[in-house]
Amino acid sequence: MAHFRQLFQPLSIMTTPSSGPRKLGFWIAYDLGLQGDYKNLFTWLDTAGAEECGNSLAYFERELVADETPEAADEAIRADLISNVMFKENDRVYLISPRTMGSSVVSSGRFIIGGRKTKTPWDGYGILQNVAPDMAVPA
Fold it and tell me: Are 10 and 52 in contact (CB under 8 A)?
């Protein structure tokens, strides 16, 4: 439950005393469809020490290498996934990771495999703001 609360707060860049190794917290959401390479993805997540956070969502921490930037860490994660998991045309992986903006740390997300669908599953469920409400019919 603690990780769910963290999803809506900035992810932290943790440092050890004396400018030691830095660890970053990452969220990864995945959609590999029914025939996806879950065996290799789950092997990768287990090796990364990831925690399950609901359907197709996991959290893991990764230590930065030397002077690696958070952006470079994203690319290293992407490359590592591609070398270990057989992704298909419609597979998608979304990575949420910390970014330093000035003196602040903010969360940023992007698709590192695949992309956004053009139509969301929830299309049509919301109430449109520009539609006039139905007129009540007097009894």
Answer: no
